[in-house]
């Protein structure tokens, strides 16, 4: 009798388990998304879920003012930086952080938490913050039906991260170090190593020229590069540096050689670049 009851119980339990394990495939109400943006020497990746308005009033109702918000839906939104960055004047080490916000009518608090394992904001603790700062929200004329995170105003040194939903937009700047890193690499690979590699010399010269550093040093590097292994793009840079140094005769000669090499390589872009450069010299 006991064995029969046990068997019956197990049969019912397994049947119940199987029925609960079966699921109908349905679309997510807040689909997951992943955005990755490179600027300078940094890549920022955001993993988040995107809820939609669906006729609801968002800020002040669905997302209450003055309360911690997961900045999306479902699991916590996670932001990953491949290098150290600066946000609101504070250094943020490379790594992953949960992105939270405390919305307000006139001011939002943005939070990066070191705890990325939470489901939404359940269990959030302020002592786990890496940084928190305030920003001013703006009203938009365009309605963002679905919550959106994006990057705008990209430069070599940073970008703006934007949070947009309904008629509200919040932006904050992420700054990354570039010049010190590049200069240290040039020192290591070119200066200290006394490099004769034409490619490295070209890269160093190009960085010095485009970032208004020591033009004489840039010229020494590009001259060494082109004397040993001339290419139409390296000769074009040599011509630009020579012109910047007031060496018009040399610049015209270098631009003419660059154009001829570009014609042989059938590169219309550099042919046009050299035509404009030659015209400016004459």
From TrEMBL:
InterPro entries attached to this UniProt entry: DUF2911
Keywords: Signal
Signal peptide: 1-21
Pfam families: DUF2911
Protein name: DUF2911 domain-containing protein
Species the sequence originates in: Algoriphagus lacus
């Amino acid at each position: 009798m006991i064995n029969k009851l046990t068997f019956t119980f197990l049969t019912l339990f397994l049947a119940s388990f199987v029925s609960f394990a079966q699921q109908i495939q349905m679309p997510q109400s807040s689909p997951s998304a992943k955005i990755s943006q490179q600027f300078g020497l940094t890549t920022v990746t955001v993993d988040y879920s995107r809820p939609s308005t669906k006729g609801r009033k968002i800020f002040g109702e669905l997302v209450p003012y003055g309360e911690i918000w997961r900045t999306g839906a479902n699991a916590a939104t996670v932001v990953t930086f491949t290098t150290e960055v600066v946000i609101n004047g504070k250094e943020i080490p490379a790594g992953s952080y949960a992105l939270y916000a405390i919305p307000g009518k006139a001011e939002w608090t943005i939070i990066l938490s070191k705890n990325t394992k939470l489901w939404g904001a359940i269990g959030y603790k302020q002592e786990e913050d890496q940084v928190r700062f305030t920003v001013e929200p703006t009203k938009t004329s365009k309605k963002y039906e679905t919550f959106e995170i994006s990057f705008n105003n990209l430069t070599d040194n940073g970008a703006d991260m934007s949070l947009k939903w309904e008629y509200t937009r919040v932006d904050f700047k992420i700054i990354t170090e570039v010049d010190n890193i590049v200069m240290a690499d040039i020192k290591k690979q070119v200066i200290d190593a006394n490099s004769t590699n034409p490619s490295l010399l070209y890269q160093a010269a190009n960085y010095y020229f485009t970032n208004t550093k020591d033009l004489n040093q840039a010229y020494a590097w590009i001259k060494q590069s082109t004397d040993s292994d001339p290419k139409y793009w390296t000769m074009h840079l040599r011509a630009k540096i020579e012109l910047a140094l007031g060496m018009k005769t040399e610049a015209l000669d270098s631009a003419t050689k660059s154009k001829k090499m570009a014609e042989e390589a059938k590169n219309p872009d550099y042919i046009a670049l050299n035509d404009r450069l030659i015209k400016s010299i004459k």
